Amino acid sequence: MLWAAEHTPRELNVGGPTWQARLGNILFPGLLDRKLARDGYDAQQTDTPIDPVTWRDNLDRPRDGHTDHGAEGVFADRARARSAALWVSTHKPAVSTVGLLTVALAAAGLARRLR
Q: Which end of the chain is more exposed for a tag (fewer CB within 10 A), N or C?
């Protein structure tokens, strides 16, 4: 998020599902909106009741009051430490260069074969 704050991208794809959602919106506009309207809220909930006396969140300060351990919580087991989609989104010049070199080498190889 620090990178996004410093570089102010218009959009930042932070994970594979983000790319899937964007592609889905291109191919099937409106379908994802209807699915999220139907299932999105429930997918973010848990059946485990919360004890309001002992429950502590990390919305405005770290849970232990001192050290920020990141966004760990009841869904942390689904989280990933790294994202290839985020890396691609934050390294567009490098990805573009590799893509152009790949196309150039493929074109050169094809031209050599056709001779």
A: C
The stretch 22-28 carries a mean pLDDT of: 89
According to DSSP, residue 37 is labeled H
78 DSSP assignment:
G
What's the mean per-residue pLDDT of the chain? 83
pLDDT surpasses 70 at 95: yes
Please tell me whether residue 38 adopts helix, strand or coil conformation: helix
Residue appearing with tokens 């985020």: 86
The three-state DSSP-derived secondary structure of 9-23 is CCCCCCCHHHHHHHH
Phi and psi at 99, nearest 5°, equal: -60, -45
In the chain, where the domains are located: 15-79, 83-115
